[in-house]
Write a structure and sequence with these properties.
By secondary structure, the protein is mostly beta strands. It is built from 5 helices and 22 strands.
């Protein structure tokens, strides 16, 4: 068996809020953590990707086109997220104290895989995990701030001199009332060792709960001076026809009912799929809102609107050159 050593440059994918999910990528354990790079000889035969506000499901078929079994670490990185309860976070991590706050599950050829998890605390672009560990401050993004095991409680137990040290490194913020809060973000990666048998297909499947950024208002407006709506139209490819259809529904012109609009956003990292050998030979994507009266918007070449609540893409030899941002507009009926 030939164990492939991936010694290429770091290719860590990170995005800003709203939080994104990610594609599989090959990796190796190196000093300081996981390093991502290409896995030559293994192609992605197909990827079937389903995205909704409540669940993401992915099914990959990989083929080892060499005459030798290849063993590598497969990694699933999540982008950076602020510790739970941080100002501007807006994510509900639940009340658990597990690093698997997205209920991530994976299977290889139908058999459940036990994954390991790595978490790093990043501030000002640097890995500061060791410093926080030395001071006994939990870094986890998933523990509620009211929990004694949270980052917030860990910071509150430190001295003012230690606060000053952390503040200088971008690891600490103090609010006007003198309360400390984390200044770092947490990068979480699930990983496991996978053998790709020579000349054979390997099926890897994932399922997990996405973390979405929520708003009580949808960034869609007929006002030409509404800059948020203008930016959203570009970012999520909202056409004038889409905007008119949404307003017609919400104004009661479709079914006689009037609606109010909420929004949820999520991102999905597609570009890490380029770490495998060649293009994705058969790529299929479905993005679907919860209800038929909801709308979904996203930008990706070839993405087609099947209905207001469903987008779909099928493409051979797909190259994931860009990541994906998705906007769900949730339509809630008003009492009429």
């Amino acid at each position: 068996m030939n164990i492939r050593v991936l010694a290429w440059a770091v290719c860590m994918a990170t995005v800003s809020a709203p939080m994104a999910m990610a594609n599989d990528t090959s990796a190796r354990l190196a000093s300081g953590g996981l390093v991502f790079g290409k896995q030559l000889g293994v192609v992605m035969q197909s990827e079937d990707l389903y995205i909704s506000p409540d669940v993401i499901r992915v099914r990959y078929v990989f083929r080892n086109e060499t005459a030798t079994d290849l063993e590598t670490i497969v990694a699933f990185p999540l982008p950076e997220a602020a510790p739970s309860g941080d100002i501007g976070g807006g994510y509900n991590f639940g009340d658990g104290v597990t690093a698997n706050f997205v209920d991530f599950k994976t299977w290889a050829d139908g058999t459940p895989v036990v994954t390991q998890v790595e978490q790093k605390a990043l501030a000002l672009g640097l890995d500061r995990t060791e410093i926080l560990n030395r001071l006994g401050v939990p870094i986890g993004s998933y523990i509620p701030p009211t929990d004694p095991r949270s980052a917030f409680h860990g910071l509150s137990r430190l001295s003012e001199a230690e606060w000053s040290e952390l503040a200088a490194l971008g690891l600490l913020r103090i609010d006007p009332q003198g309360h400390p809060s984390p200044g770092w973000t947490v990068a979480t990666t699930f990983y496991w060792t996978q053998v790709f048998s020579a000349g054979k297909d390997t099926v890897i499947e994932h399922q997990y709960r996405p973390l979405t950024g929520s708003s009580f208002d949808a960034p869609i407006s007929s006002d030409p001076d509404n800059h948020d709506a203008a930016r959203a139209a570009i970012r999520f490819c909202i056409s004038e026809q889409d905007r008119k259809a949404l307003h017609a529904l919400h104004d009661g012109k479709i079914d006689g009912r009037t609606y109010t609009a909420f929004s949820e956003e999520l991102g999905y990292i597609l570009k890490t799929a380029a770490n495998w050998s060649g293009a994705i030979r058969d790529f299929h994507l479905v993005i679907e809102a919860r209800e038929p009266v909801d709308f979904v918007f996203a930008c990706l070449p070839g993405l087609k609107r099947i209905s207001p609540s469903r987008l779909e893409l099928s493409e051979a030899q797909f190259w994931p050159f860009s990541d994906l941002d998705v906007l769900f507009v949730i339509s809630k009926p008003l009492d009429n």
